[in-house]
Specification:
- Mean pLDDT is 90; it is low at 403-417.
- The chain has 417 residues and is of the alpha/beta class.
- It has an eight-stranded mixed beta sheet with strand order 3-4-5-2-6-7-1-8, sandwiched between helices. It has a seven-stranded mixed beta sheet with strand order 9-15-12-11-10-13-14, sandwiched between helices.
- Helix 11 links the parallel strand 13 and strand 14 (331-333).
- It starts with 7 loop residues before the first helix and ends in a 17-residue tail after the last helix.
- The protein is elongated and about 70 Å long.
- It contains 14 helices and 15 strands.
Length: 417
């Protein structure tokens, strides 16, 4: 990896614990701000360098939302950097750890995922000399506090980085707003402060997001999500249907009491079009439909097209079973992270990679009604006018983003029918 000169904040992240640093007596460092602002690489290199300079044969924890995200976002891109710096790296995937050795100093780094409240049990009983949390705002408070409680070794320190979330978030209120009482160094990063990003790349990110996602991921601000979920949706996001497509999928949000929404998607010249849709509200029509009746509507929507797969609401177990029993379509349970899905839909709408054909009246109507729940302490859309929105989100997350890794911030350089 070719390094470019570091920014002042990146240098501060790298050196804050050093003997000549004015921050050397702090117990923790917090780096928050925009994506691609150069936080992760500097923090990771700083974390392992501090561990090497201050401990021998000690244990540390490297935590992410999942162990897989730690591997994807930290280990895969940055372990080669440590090798460049002279470290001997022994990564033992099956044990969930890696060891680093240089100049006769050797330490062990354990990998943990903190995706839910039950994750706190994973780290209980350990004795740690330090812990780094990558994207701490995605982790539950119980997991983070359990990991901090494990750092009982003298001179242990804590390392946090994250992108901003809702200002009601526990980490914002308990750590960022209390950096003095926590004896923590707080560094706020903006995307423009990453010297490895070109002007063209900065402009690309400026155009990629809107609303709360723009404020958080580009400006690095802790703001509440309010108003329409997709404020960018307008005439530019709609189109006439192409005559022929290269690939076809169907996405389904299943409902019996609640409405059911199915969308037929086609790919043409790198753009995915919602070609047709089926939308049924039992309340509006005065009658519920069975799984078999919904399956017949699915077949009608598919017509004679070569459907590659049906992306289905993962909670619709009985409908998934019905589709599979008929053996006509390959069915895939959808990825269902709501906030990630909304961010992804926003991105492809703004970039022009997703278009809604003008005949899809129900989904177009929902785009104008789908709002954030302003009374919620967490970011969540209101549970109404959301059924086409859900099936669109399933499709985007499961097809357009199925092989994409999460963003990494660098501070230096069906079968057929």
């Amino acid at each position: 990896m070719n390094f470019k000169p570091f920014s002042k904040k990146q240098l501060a992240t790298l050196c804050w614990w050093g003997p000549d640093s004015p921050y050397r007596e702090r117990d923790a460092i917090i780096c928050d701000g925009a994506v691609r602002s150069g936080k992760s690489l500097c923090m990771f290199v700083s974390f392992v360098s501090w561990a090497t300079c201050n401990f021998q044969n000690a244990s540390f924890a490297l935590c992410g939302r999942t162990a897989s995200s730690v591997k994807r976002n930290i280990l895969t891109p940055y372990l080669p950097v440590l090798k460049q710096l002279g470290f001997k790296v022994n990564y033992q995937v099956s044990y969930g750890k890696f060891t680093l050795e240089i100049g006769g100093i050797k330490n062990t780094f354990w990998i943990f995922g903190g995706k839910d409240e039950a994750s706190a049990a994973l780290i209980q009983g350990m004795t740690l000399s330090g812990v780094m949390f990558d994207e701490v705002a995605l982790m539950p408070r119980s997991f983070v506090e359990q990991a901090l409680a494990r750092c009982s070794v003298e001179n242990s320190k804590f390392w946090f980085n994250c992108n901003p979330s809702n200002p009601s978030h526990w980490f914002y209120n308990e750590w960022i707003k209390k950096t003095d009482t926590k004896n923590a160094l707080y560094l706020h990063f903006e995307m423009s402060e990453n010297p490895s990003l070109s002007k063209e790349m900065l402009q690309r990110y400026e155009k990629m997001y809107s609303g709360a996602f723009y404020e958080r991921f580009v400006k690095g601000r802790w703001v509440a999500a309010d108003g329409l979920v997709y404020p960018m949706f307008g005439d530019s996001c709609m189109a006439d249907c192409p005559e022929q497509c290269e690939e076809y999928y169907i996405s389904c949000d299943y409902g019996t009491v609640n409405p059911a929404s199915f969308g037929l998607w086609g790919l043409t010249d790198g753009i995915w079009y919602r070609l047709r849709e089926y939308y049924y509200s039992s309340k509006r029509e005065g009658a519920q439909k069975t799984d078999e009746e919904y399956y017949r509507e699915l077949r009608n929507l598919a017509a004679d097209l070569p459907i590659k797969a049906v992306i289905c609401d993962p909670s619709a177990a009985s409908f998934i079973t019905t589709i599979r029993r008929h053996g006509e379509f390959r069915v895939i349970p959808a990825q269902n992270d709501v906030l990630d899905g909304i961010r992804r839909v926003s991105e492809v709408l703004k970039s022009g990679k997703l278009k809604i054909c003008r005949n899809c009246r129900d989904s177009i109507a929902e785009f104008s009604l789908y709002c954030w729940d302003e009374g919620s302490v967490k970011d969540s859309p209101r549970k109404e006018n959301d059924h086409a929105m859900d099936d669109i989100r399933y499709f985007v997350s499961s097809v357009l983003f199925k092989s994409r890794p999460s963003s990494v911030a660098l501070a230096a350089k069906r079968g057929s029918r």
